[in-house]
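Practice problem: predict the structure.
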Amino acid sequence: MVKGIIFDMDGVLVDTEAFYRQRREEFLRRMDFAVQETADFTGSNERAIWEALVPADEEFRSQMLMGYRAYRRLHPAPYRELMNPQVPELFAQLKDKGLKTGIASSSDREAVVRMTEAAGVTRLVDYIISGQDCTAHKPSPEIYLRALEALGLMSDTAVAVEDSATGIAAAKGAGLRVYALRPRHGEAIDQSAADAVLDSLADVWKFL
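Answer:
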């Protein structure tokens, strides 16, 4: 019996991946270090992204990353605009049914908190864990294992909703059933390892 759901954030609850990519590219252009991203960073983490963008010079990469973090604070994601419109109703329904909800995101904690506030679901979320809170990033299962422990759930009584291959692998590594939300803009994301693919977020009810 399913007693809880753990959601990824980016690409699942909010349609942010394109915004993040554009923000990074705008920052790099301002720094006269224009790079056209060719890699797919969906589901990746900050460290891995910047190691790929600035691979050769660790000191310079660190400086660029510090600069980007400041730029990011000045150009926050418009979560209200990018929100999956099904989120508020779905989270309210889950709470009404007595299911626990968690968010396990590679984004930083401040971003996750701002997203829940923008969606009006802060009081409906039982637990948040971010990449900042973990020693290993997805596809390591650490983030999901810690979420399960905090929610008081076993892997066979919870499910995860993800979008990226990296996130799916992390949740599967924690022993969870995983449902992948189909990319909303037709992006080529490998979701073959998921137990099922959802056409919309509300379709998760079919599997509970």
